[in-house]
Amino acid sequence: MKLEGIKVLDLSLFLPGPLLTQMMADHGAQVVKLEPVNGGEPNREIGPKRDGESIYFANTHRGKKSVQLNLKTDEGKEMALRLAEQADVVIEAFRPGVVDRLGVSYEAIKARNPGIVYASLSAFGQTGPYIKKPAHDLATEGYAGILSTNLGFDGKPAIPAIPNADMLTSMMGLSAVLMALLRRKDTGEGDYIDLAMMDSLIACVPNNMGSVFADKKPPVVKEERTWGGYAMYNIYETKDDKYIVLGASEMHFAVNVLTKMGRTDLIEFCEPPPGPNQNPVKAFLTETFLGKTQAEWIEWFSDVDAAFAPVNDLRQGADDPQIRAREMIVEDKQGREHIGIPIKFSNEPGAINFEAPGLGDHNEEMALAVGFSAREIREMKDKGVFGS
User: Would you say residue 325 lies in a domain?
Assistant: First the structure.
């Protein structure tokens, strides 16, 4: 696999860092998850469980090793540094300044491992006036202005279905780590990566900053190209209180749909730009789609070349034949479902190790691997270095 031989020390918690390192584990990296002694990774206890294990944890920690360490002890700190000394990559997601207090900062680890690639994931980054502010995904979306564009049918801001800042930072973090590892092959030098959730959000709206940059004004959301300004790029309700999507604004799709509906007179209103000029088509489609059930519209569109889709719920999405064909929902030997691997290589494809570690399962194994003796490990246990 592509990352075989790469060793990762994961100090992060919750979603962005753990998902980043799980992607690496799926492609062959050895990932050691360092968990705190006060309960370990929080997402072990978040949400529904299956066979005593939270789905959230299983979806972010498969194929990793778990070491539970008290970094406030000298031995715990030393073991963390030894693990980092053998690692290629360290990922952390504490608030700025915490790793300095814990003794596992980039500078501390670089002193023992100059080639380390060290990534810090945080809400606002390591510089700027907000670095001490506590925040998760939603707050960064609020500050960045992203939340103001995520409007429900009532026109008010709604909580996004996907934790955009978390996911974008995770994937940008993976890209950054891989870039740094690639460069290290030529120079022998590691690097420090400062990733902010708020930065990731801003970087991902290049297609929506037109009025912001050109007119110095916020966009009128419902008139924007990808936020409802086009009649043919919109969500419509059906007779049975379900929804369907028209998902492409190109004119040939508008021609195909409106011709079959017998309303070629409306085609001209689908011409750019988005905005109020599209309202006659929106009004017609809104009324028309209420005339049939979602299932009837699925059948109606079966022979129409248009970017049509039903709005599935997540269970339907998990069972969708395209999702299953792409192995994005897979089952283990016990028939339990898991999220699949999205990066699909022809050569050396990734492979899923469905087992997620128990808390501290690999304490002794990894302590021995970094040079602690059996006697030292017994003493560390007695001192609570591995938790109670």
Answer: no
